[in-house]
Amino acid sequence: MKRTTIKDIAQQLGINPSTVSRALKDHPDIGLALRTEIKKLADQLHYRPNHMAVYLRQQSSRLIGLIIPEVTMFFYPSVIKGIQNVLHDGGYNLIMLPSNESLEREIENIHICSENDVAGIMLAFSRYRHTAEHLSALEEIGAPVVMFDKIIDDLPYDAIVLEDFQSAYVAVKHLISTGCKRIAGIFGNQELRITQLRLEGFRQAITDSGLIYNEADVYFADSSFEAEQSAGSMMAKSPPPDGIFAMTDEIIIGSLPSIVRSGKKIPEECSVICISDGFLPYCLYPKVTFLHHDGYEVGKLAAQRMLQLIETGQFTGENYKGEVTMLKPLLIELDTTRKVENVEG
Amino acid sequence: MKRTTIKDIAQQLGINPSTVSRALKDHPDIGLALRTEIKKLADQLHYRPNHMAVYLRQQSSRLIGLIIPEVTMFFYPSVIKGIQNVLHDGGYNLIMLPSNESLEREIENIHICSENDVAGIMLAFSRYRHTAEHLSALEEIGAPVVMFDKIIDDLPYDAIVLEDFQSAYVAVKHLISTGCKRIAGIFGNQELRITQLRLEGFRQAITDSGLIYNEADVYFADSSFEAEQSAGSMMAKSPPPDGIFAMTDEIIIGSLPSIVRSGKKIPEECSVICISDGFLPYCLYPKVTFLHHDGYEVGKLAAQRMLQLIETGQFTGENYKGEVTMLKPLLIELDTTRKVENVEG
DNA sequence: TTACCAACAACAAACGTTTGCGCAATTGGT
DNA sequence: ACCAATTGCGCAAACGTTTGTTGTTGGTAA
Questions:
Q1: At A345, is the pLDDT very low, low, confident or very high (cuts 50, 70, 90)?
Q2: What is the DSSP string of B103-137?
Q3: What domains sit in chain B, N to C, each tagged with a CATH number?
Q4: What is the separation of C-alpha A39 from the centre of its chain, rounded to a whole number of angstroms?
Q5: Chain A residues with CB inside 8 Å of B57's CB?
Q6: pLDDT-derived band at B166, boundaries 50, 70, 90
Q7: pLDDT category of residue B191 using cuts at 50, 70 and 90
Q8: Mean pLDDT over all residues of chain B?
Q9: CB contact under 8 A, A285 and B97
Q10: Could you tell me the CA-to-CA distances from B282 to A116, A226, A287, A291 in Å, in that order?
Q11: Which of A151, A156, A201, A140 has its CA nearest to residue A176?
Q12: CB 3.0-4.6 Å disulfide test: which of A42, A71, A250, B105 passes with B99?
């Protein structure tokens, strides 16, 4: 059950493969009569071009490598969806390369991209320190690179990221505006740039408001389960904080149940806010106000940038430094009963 | 910045490309001295084989097409992880082809698989009725197909699925064993085979236990938000049910907040159980007992089956009918305060 | 008539690999 | 010192396309 090729069609019609190739792409050199005949036969035989052969000949594939730290249920599904929708319309296909949070695997994935001659690489880095080998491997590929979400500074590649500092800052400011006096925060892995930035925004918002920043109210959790632990010990303090900032969906889903279990009324006794992709906060109990970090949008923009780079070819050259696009978060208030109202009421 | 090829190496050494090719794969025909010299140079030039060319020559790619209805945060991330881990170890790469729940796109995805000459297709169907065109496209490819999760009966392909009927049956039986007298269920899209099977298990468990099956206590929801609505109207009834079965993670995350909001004590006044991938039930408040439907395991098994089929080539021929593997669910009890204990206590 | 130009299609090379075959040089056994 | 077997490597074809060049018609204009 061999696939039908251009050769097969040519043979059956007693003509040359090149004629078939041209006919199928409506090259004017081929007469209309023959052209339609060829197309008819191609249809009958269910001819489909062999992309491998096309790639080889044209020295350019229509495959894009997607390297992400890990396939989790948070954030990445919507990013992938955004990327996929754009790339598909551009005629490109995605090859999935999760690094399982391993540096070694990340490098391997870059090599796989190279071996498959991808037209471009979309990249979110794993949480570990990155080596020179890493980056040189990336350079050698000669394909455009677009980073997103977890990026490394000072790399000459385009990037789409969310405003981490600003999001945390706005979130905490919002908590304070609703009357919170002592705010605790639960953060992700400390090594990550996004953690550091969000922590900085958190701190800044507190000190800017004349409140006291206390390191004892800052927690780090590498998973939802750790977040649950953190929230537990947080609420066990006396007094517990009256405002809580959760850095991500992964954090909020782990910690919210703990907070609820503590018995404190939310948001009357303890306000909770998080940064989220925009789905969970609607589903959780109680509903939580959040800063919308739109993964779909990140994916969409990253993919669009990628297509642009491929088309224009403007990603190469010594002087290309890359451009970082920052997405502004949007505050979505779901807990309408705010403490300031309580105070006034 | 052209990639270095075998030709380049051959030229620099003044030898034939075939010699280089053989040397790089340790063919004994090539002398040890030359062999190591070639390898050294290949290393220096950062040679990486061009998979496209290899595929073309060998008439077999190491790409696997993954077609899923949609990239959601539920179930599929862990399935993908399972698939990916196995395939990677087997030296295969995944090309992601979400169908966005569109039949047309699903067919297109099959064609993309064909064009890219994939070594195999891993397939979860979209929710819509499937056409003959669909299936014939699949047949023509000449590559093994492994279905998972959302499958179609009577197709001559292997499949890995979860025991839908059984899971629902066991779940509901468990509710009843803890003392529930009137059990409601929230289900997904009615068109889906898994919905029908789980509904059937639900019904059967109720009637088998001598309780009354009431269609008014059965709800269908296409999303978490619809599930929230359903749970709302469910709890608004008087009396509300004292046991609730949620068909999936997507359903439970939408409905649980609604149930909690109703004010009923869980599980004392109203027990909740669901079928889940195994993550959410630990995170939600309150923790919910569930039947573990392990997406990771599904992915792993499906991928292993795929590798097997590729290796043995035993997927073709008129008489091959495919084999359906059923995964047994595991009951995980998280709400330790059970009603029967209350009754006794 | 000659020359010219479309129009159409065949030819052949090329992309980077792999691989069957062949050929020379070396080895070993008599 | 001769044949046979072995070693080590080159040659060339092939995978399915694309594409620049060449060739063959038939027709039109000079």
A1: very low
A2: HHHHHHHHHHHHHTT-SEEEE---SS---HHHHHH
A3: 6-44 (no CATH), 59-162+295-327 (3.40.50.2300), 164-293+331-342 (3.40.50.2300)
A4: 42
A5: none
A6: very high
A7: confident
A8: 91
A9: no
A10: 40, 12, 18, 25
A11: A201
A12: B105
Give the position of tokens 């780090």. A220
Nearest-Cα residue of chain B relative to residue A48: B115
What's the residue count for chain A? 345
Is the pLDDT reported for residue B196 higher than 70?
A: yes
Question: CA B113 → CA A98, A182, B56, B142, B227, distances in Å?
Answer: 21, 56, 15, 11, 35
Selecting from B49, B140, B228 the residue whose C-beta is nearest the C-beta of A115 gives: B49
pTM across the whole model? 0.92
CA of B263 vs C1' of D12, distance in Å?
82
Nearest to B290 by CA among B273, B277, B270: B273
- Give the pair of three-digit tokens for residue B167: 């899971």
Q: What is the mean pLDDT of residues B96-114?
A: 94
> How large is the angle between the packed helices B132-140 and B103-115, nearest 10 degrees?
10
Q: Are B60 and B41 contacting, i.e. CB atoms less than 8 angstroms apart?
A: no
Of A2, A48, A114, the CB nearest to B48: A114
Residue with the larger pLDDT of the pair B141 and A170: A170
**What's the gap in Å between the CA of A166 and the closest CA on chain B?**
26
Q: Report pLDDT digits (tens) over A207-257.
A: 999 999 999 999 999 999 999 999 999 999 989 999 999 999 999 999 998
Q: Protein B233 CA to nucleic acid D3 C1', in Å?
A: 97
Number of A:B CB contacts under 8 A?
145
Tell me the per-residue pLDDT of B222-249, one tens digit each, with 9 for 90 and over: 999 999 999 999 999 989 999 999 999 9
Outline where B45-163 has alpha helix (H). 51-58, 76-89, 103-115, 132-140
Give the rounded percent of residues in chain B with a pLDDT score beyond 70. 96
Measured CA distances, A256 to A224, B149, B251, B284 (Å): 10, 31, 19, 8
A100 touches chain B (CB under 8 A): yes
In this structure, are strands A93-98 and B93-98 parallel, antiparallel, or unpaired?
A: antiparallel
List pLDDT tens digits, range B53-69. 999 999 999 999 999 99
* DSSP sequence for A242-311: SEEEE-SHHHHHHHHHHHHHTT--TTTTSEEEEEE-SSHHHHSSS--EEEE--HHHHHHHHHHHHHHHHH
Chain centroid to CA B297 = 9
Radius of gyration over every alpha carbon of chain B, rounded to an integer in angstroms: 26
CA-based nearest residue to A123, from A141, A150, A163: A150
In the DSSP assignment, the letter for residue A318 is T
Q: Is A160 on the interface with B (CB under 8 A)?
A: no
- Smallest CA–CA distance, residue A30 to chain B, in Å, is 25
Q: Which of B62, B73, B139 to probe the A interface (max A CBs under 10 A)?
A: B73
How far in angstroms lies nucleotide D7's C1' from the CA of residue B58?
27
Helix (H, G, I), strand (E, B) or coil at A34: helix
